[in-house]
Design brief:
The protein contains six helices and 23 strands. By secondary structure, the protein is mainly β. It is globular.
């Protein structure tokens, strides 16, 4: 069957578009004593007990998009020991180049030791998740513990919509898990088990990642090979893809691309750097290629991790404007005074540029305003408004630098909660 062609988006975008680069955020605060569950929702279908044939690759929605399928879990098989595969020797930043005549085996040994140490740091916190379905089938994915009291981060498509969730720890203990909530903007979910004093994965940062640095994926591929480790590099940054699980699809932006092997069952597992810190959450793989996998940057997960530990409902911030990212062509066509920024403009079908009752309206934003910075960070094609909002939480106050009629203004906006339908 031929997949339908997807239409391109209009030039306007709500400021809550998915994902974006993030600057380093403060450490996740300690969990409060009170805690309340957030609503869970998902478009994930029940997974079959036998692996389906890979669907035909979808046609691209926008130039540069890659047709992929979300890494859906397969039925769990027998558990194996820790496997390290596809080990490659890649010189990392800071590695001293050997003098001429030296044997390169020493470099390989150092790189191998770095991988072994990184895996030893993270692997005890990696878990296997079996999602039972009302139809009797089940799917298998991965996740990792980020708080010793049983808080686990995984993919939304692994956990949401499941009739039951069973978590197997690295030490083979098994627990029933509760879905705490899913993120409205990313393929992320948080689940919890009733346990304490658990090993946790060190959390790194993704804002300063560089193409070429070592990347290590840990997970449970094919529902059969638990604690599998694959290595590669960060192959690209800021990738945009259309992800599909066979029944629904969504656009995911600003992802990490890696050639560390990611397979069905790896979904929700950590992508790790050479010093043993989580830099991403494995989420998808290109079905029509080899060595092209994708991970959600860890910085995008930090706000919802903090909300969960604080006993708050998972939510994302919102300004409430439609905008168009300015390019050289748009600047020339509209005779603008700047060549980058976010132009607040009328939405689809004549929708108001600023949503009525939104934080943007309360702050006085207007159609025609050009937002050039948010929180002191420049707004440009590589860092759009949605990108720069992700490190924040609802209720935070952010400063916007705005051009209006040739005058530069500083406008403070108290961020609201992104409506579910956005």
């Amino acid at each position: 069957m031929t997949d339908p062609e997807f239409e391109s988006d209009s030039p306007h975008a709500v400021e809550s578009d998915r994902y974006g680069a993030s600057e380093d955020t403060a450490p996740i605060p300690a969990r409060s004593d009170s805690w309340s569950s957030a609503p869970a929702w998902s478009t994930r279908r029940s997974l079959p007990t036998e692996p389906p044939e890979p669907p035909p690759a979808r046609r691209p929605r926008l130039a540069g998009f890659v047709a992929i399928a979300l890494a859906a879990g397969l039925v769990s098989g027998s558990l194996s020991g820790l496997a390290v595969v596809n080990l490659v020797g890649i010189e990392q930043p800071g590695t001293t180049t050997l003098p001429p005549g030296e044997n390169v085996s020493q470099v390989t040994l150092e790189e191998t030791s770095a991988v072994i140490n990184a895996v030893a740091s993270v692997a005890p916190a990696v878990v296997t998740i079996v999602a039972g379905q009302a139809t009797g089938g089940s799917g298998t994915g991965s996740g990792f513990i980020f708080d010793p009291d049983g808080w686990i981060l995984t993919n939304r498509h692994v956990a949401a919509g499941a009739e039951s969730l069973t978590v197997t720890l690295a030490d083979s203990r098994i627990f029933e898990a509760t879905l705490i909530g899913t993120d409205t903007l990313t393929d992320l979910a948080i689940i919890k088990i009733d346990a304490s004093d658990l090993p946790t994965a060190p959390i790194g940062a993704s804002a300063a990642l560089e193409v070429g640095q070592l990347a290590i994926a840990i997970g449970y591929p094919l529902g059969e090979y638990r604690d599998t480790v694959t290595t590669g590099v960060v192959s690209g940054l800021g990738r945009q893809i259309r992800a599909s699980d066979g029944t629904s699809s969504e656009d995911l932006n600003h992802l990490i691309q890696t050639d560390a092997a990611i397979n069905p069952g790896n979904s929700g597992g950590p992508l790790v750097n050479s010093v043993g810190q989580v830099i991403g959450i494995n989420t998808a793989v290109a079905t029509s290629a080899q060595g092209i996998g994708f991970a959600i940057p860890i910085d995008f997960a930090k706000p919802i991790m903090a909300l969960a530990l604080g006993g708050e409902e998972l939510a994302r911030p919102w300004v409430g404007v439609y905008y168009t990212m300015i390019t050289l062509q748009i600047a020339a066509e509209l005779d603008l005074s700047v060549e980058e920024g976010a132009l607040i403009d009328t939405g689809p079908n004549g929708a108001p540029a600023v949503f009525p009752g939104s934080p943007g309206e309360a702050a006085g934003l207007q159609a025609g305003d050009i937002i050039t910075a948010l929180g002191g960070r420049r707004v440009d094609e590589g860092h759009d408004l949605a990108t720069l909002l992700l490190p924040y939480r609802p209720g935070d106050v952010v400063a916007l630098t705005v051009l209006r009629g040739g005058e530069e203004l500083e406008i403070e906006v108290t961020l609201g909660t992104l409506p579910a339908e956005r």
